[in-house]
Design goal:
The chain is of the alpha+beta class. The protein has 8 helices and 15 strands.
Length: 272
């Protein structure tokens, strides 16, 4: 498994944040949960986790940028490597007591829009640690993993996420969902994009598609999928997924099938 100072820092930060979150899991008072937007909740646990991850990462890598879901951007050097962090991916699951959530830590080579080069996803409930660094492969609990070799949608086991933050896109999303549903074996919606992407990297899911994700939802998971031999693109097979948040992630065969299916519907990514 690859070892570097940034990776070590990311793993330590994710693990310690996971311990903090486990202390809150199942015991949050309703007053500690609020809506920051329609259908988008945040809790005391999210904020405490982000504060801890930020302290540890910037302590280990001073001068880096830090981009957190809850606190925004910290740092003044726009060209510095940027940490892109979701301190609790799957907050709705967490606050309801559904044991499927994770800490997601990604890092760029330089700048907030720079190349993604490191990803860590830690699931403290199941004890699953996913790590990847550019050029070094992807690993689950220390064992190298790879994406599914499936060559099409027949028999495919896929993951998705509903566009609950962008409900105006629901009709377009449902067109895609229906088309995939009619060809794949099954589709799951578990509520954590970071874990969905991690599971794609190790072949649990054959692929993943979602609209309207934020950078912290997908940064770490995208590195995992890429380093495991998969593809991460927008819905037209291009590179605008980080900007627009519309993602197709899969092994090459399933990715090609998903992209063909979307193209056949006449849907352009810029319309999503």
């Amino acid at each position: 498994m690859p070892v570097s100072r940034p990776l070590d820092a990311a793993v330590e930060a994710a693990r310690r944040a996971g311990d903090l979150l486990l202390g809150h899991f199942g015991s949050l008072d309703p007053s500690e949960v609020e809506e920051k937007g329609r259908n988008d909740v945040v809790s005391r646990a999210d904020r405490e986790s982000e504060a801890l991850v930020k302290e540890l990462l910037l302590g280990a890598c001073p001068g880096d940028l830090f981009i957190g879901e809850e606190g925004g951007v910290t740092g003044s050097n726009a060209d510095a490597p940027a940490w892109i962090v979701d301190p609790l991916d799957g907050t709705a699951n967490f606050v309801r007591g559904f044991p499927h959530w994770a800490v997601s830590v990604g890092r760029t080579a330089g700048g907030r829009d720079g190349e993604l080069v490191l990803g860590v996803v830690w699931d403290p409930v199941k004890g699953d640690l996913f790590v990847a660094e550019k050029g070094s492969g992807a690993f689950r609990n220390g064992r190298r993993v790879g994406v599914s070799p499936r060559d099409g949608l027949a028999g495919a086991f896929l993951a998705t996420g509903f566009p609950f933050r962008v409900q105006s896109r629901i009709d377009t999303y449902l067109r895609v969902f229906k088309a995939v549903f009619l060809e794949a074996q099954s589709i799951r919606r578990a509520g954590s994009a970071a874990l969905d992407l991690a599971y794609v990297s190790c072949g649990v899911f054959d692929g993943f598609f979602e609209l309207g994700l934020s950078p912290w939802d997908s940064a770490a998971g995208a590195v995992l999928v890429s380093e495991a031999g998969g593809l991460v693109t927008d819905f037209e097979g291009g590179g605008a997924w980080r900007e627009r948040g519309n993602i197709l992630a899969a092994g090459p065969g399933v990715h090609a099938a998903l992209a063909r299916l979307v193209a056949g519907l006449g849907i352009r990514d810029e319309q999503l």
